[in-house]
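Thread: quick sanity check before group meeting

JM: Hey all, I'm pulling together slides for Thursday and realized we never actually wrote out the predicted structure for the chain we discussed last week. Dropping the sequence here so it's in one place. If anyone has concerns about the input, flag it before I start.
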Amino acid sequence: MTASSADLPFVRGTVPPYYAAILTTVLSQDGADMIGYAEVAAHMAELAERVDGYLGMEFARDADCGITVSYWRDLDALQRWREDVDHLAAQRLGRERYYLGYRARICRVEHEYEWTRARG
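JM (edit): ok, ran it. Output follows.
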């Protein structure tokens, strides 16, 4: 049996070239700092979907580090997201409470490919 690539949690519909914004974060270990974090993160994901040019998001987190990669049609779309008023407010909360640190990287995706292991 072959696994369908549609069964995997990858963003679909991307056609290079496009842009990826990679945000690597380290969360505060203080429980009081983290109150409301999950709700803000979920709200930001919902808001990003409304930006014309948003292509999708993938993320992973372990106890030490989180990585979120959002995909954008072009730099103008990414700039609209960066300048969104609610996103700016969430960034401020991130710096004040949620994060011990973060690093952002903006990349142009020139090529993509996918592989899926056969199951069975």
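AS: nice. The longest strand covers residues 99-109. The two ends are 5 Å apart (CA to CA).
JM: adding both to the slides.
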